[in-house]
């Protein structure tokens, strides 16, 4: 029924906004900038909850064999790169700037598909991708609060996200469901982030973190892990009930809402040229969604 689809979309939007706001609070307000530990905690909780829900029969998950898991490992590596770099960049950049750069992941997907297929694409889709690219490239030149490290990690994040999107489309395994793919992602993340925790200095830094024994810090970290898991479930629910174009529309709406609300909770210092880059990037997203809708009509 139509109202159920709207309810799922609204639920997705609420969880999406709450997840990013909670992560932003931990990374920027509390300044817990140790992504191997923060993301390792989230993915560990996510993996445990998937197993628990599977054992209780709340989620359908089959036994994952080595032969089915190995082909998915490249996607897991891209997933780890995405969440690690995303955590680094979100700690330094405001949410509008972060989303604007994240939108450029569609440019990466476009280029990979262009090189792979070599087919001529509609002018509107090409225009939308160019607009996304120009917005992202112009943003560092316009941003008065330019943070070199934040932008560098944002480029890594959008590259991994764009490649992961293509990998999801072209790796359609009949042996792995979306939940099982995510479970492999979680396990790979926990392993790789645990290995990287000491060389990056995150363990020693976390031991000196001033809010380490703070009740607020513990509550927010638990909330971030639970929200990340809920976002996974509601995203899968959304994709199963709506077309890709409608799903992207809900993601777009969620991003716009988050950007509109973030000045109420966080300090957002953005000048007019940067704001124009943000607006043009999201205009490019609208054009991209419309071009794909026309292409499937």
Structure description:
The chain has 297 residues and is mainly alpha-helical. The protein is built from 13 helices and no strands. The protein has one domain. α2 packs across α4, α5 runs antiparallel to α7 and α12 runs antiparallel to α13. The longest helix is centred in the first third of the chain and has 28 residues. It is globular. The mean pLDDT is 89.
Low-confidence stretches: none
- Major beta sheet, specifics? none
- Domains, number: 1
* Radius of gyration based on Cα positions: 19 Å
Can you count the helices? 13
Instruction: Categorize the overall geometry.
Output: globular
Mean pLDDT: 89
Beta-strand percentage? under 5%
Per DSSP E runs of 2 or more residues, the count of β-strands stands at 0
Structure characteristics:
single chain, 297 residues, mainly alpha
